[in-house]
Amino acid sequence: MTLTEAHLPPEIAKSKNRWDLFLGLALALVAMGWLMGWFYVGADRDQGDIFRIMFVHVPVAWCSFLWVITGAVFAVLGFLQPTKREARDRSSHAALEIGTVFAALALITGSIWGRPTWGVWWDWDPRLTSTLVMFLICCGYHILRSFTPDVKTRRTVAAVTAILSALNVPLVYFSVNLWRSLHQPQTFVTKSTTASSDISLTLWVNVLFLVLFSLALYKVRRQGIAATEALETAREGA
Amino acid sequence: MNQVSEYGNTPWIIYVAAAYLVVGVVLAGYTVFCYRNRRQSLLALKSEGFFADSGRETQSGAVGLSPTQGGQ
After folding, report:
1. Quick count: other Cβ atoms within 10 Å of Cβ B2?
2. Residue A211, φ and ψ in degrees, nearest 5
3. Residues 6+ away with beta carbon under 8 Å from A23
4. Exposure string (b/e) for A123-145, b if CB count within 10 Å is 16 or more?
5. Chain B residue with minimal CA distance to A46?
């Protein structure tokens, strides 16, 4: 089999190192946002300095929502556009993987915040439990991908699981309103007028910068997945 | 700075630093994984014969690889 650049997926066929530069820039912005969280904002009236964890916990939680939903959107597009199924599957795979990493970080940072605030590392509260379920479905997505050898079946099973994981996101988000919860309500969205401006600014800056960083990470990861798939295809065809 | 939680004597800075550290370490590790995975796959593609006919690898290089990387 003669292999040329024409066989390569578009993600890696052309030089797109600009995402590497973008990732470096986003990393610097994230570091700046964290410095704001440590030094720019004063202590909270009720929580004291423990609330500084919010400047990492809330952005990683929202990034997990963003990427899990993005993964599901690409999965749906894969069903709607059969000719672009491979590319959509790669996008969905990369997005779900990043969503899984952020979901794990949301659970860990939330647990670290919960110990000094609630007195427990973990509670079977609706928000925490639904987030854990979302994380486990994301893990299931990767397990299913790994253990399904047939490519077409793998893509279908993965797409269905990606959609299932995203269906859980509204449940996670609204769980604090739907049930009695230890977790506080949506403080920064519904009560942003009561938060001081420096807290709101620092939070939104951290959310924005982490979203930019995760976007660059998504692009790099998708290139890696595309290269790995192209390699597998080449070896199968040889 | 001496503020402690009502649930223990651990200073707040331990919890906050731990949260930032965990996020930083995990994201750094995942970034390294993404780059290594992409680089290794592209190097393997080169050794399998991709980029052979256009000579692009000697000009701009495939994504994530410098012109001198890869085995032909």
Report:
1. 6
2. -65, -40
3. A213, A216, A217, A220, B31
4. bebbbbbbbbebbebbeebeeeb
5. B5
How many of the other CB atoms lie within 10 Å of CB of A15?
15
A95 in B contact zone (CB under 8 Å): no
Distance (Å) from the alpha carbon of A176 to chain B's nearest alpha carbon:
23
Name, in order, each residue with C-beta under 8 angstroms of A149's C-beta and a sequence gap of 6 or more: none
Question: Can you tell me the distance from the alpha carbon of B41 to that of B36, in angstroms, rounded to the nearest whole number?
Answer: 8
B7 φ, ψ (degrees, to nearest 5): -100, 10
Cα separation of B37 and B32, whole Å?
A: 8
Residue B15: exposed, middle, or buried by beta-carbon count in 10 A (0-12, 13-18, 19+)? Answer: buried
Q: A186-224, pLDDT tens digit by residue?
A: 665 655 556 678 888 999 999 999 999 999 999 999 999
φ, ψ of residue A12 to 5 degrees: the values are -120, -5
Q: Check residue B64 and give left, alpha or beta (phi > 0: left; psi -120 to 50: alpha).
A: left
Which of B20, B30, B34 to mutate against chain A (most A CBs within 10 Å)?
B34
pLDDT tens-place string over residues A137-150: 999 999 999 998 88
Please state the ipTM of this predicted complex: 0.88
Query: Across the strands, what pairs with A48?
Result: A44
pLDDT in tens, A159-191: 999 999 999 888 888 877 777 777 766 665 655
CB A16 within 8 A of CB A222: no
Q: Name residue B17's amino acid.
A: A
Distance CA A101, CA B69 (A): 30
Token readout for B45 is: 């593609």
Residues in chain B: 72
* Residues A56, A71: Cα–Cα separation, whole Å: 22
Give all strands (DSSP E) within chain B, no chain letters. Answer: none
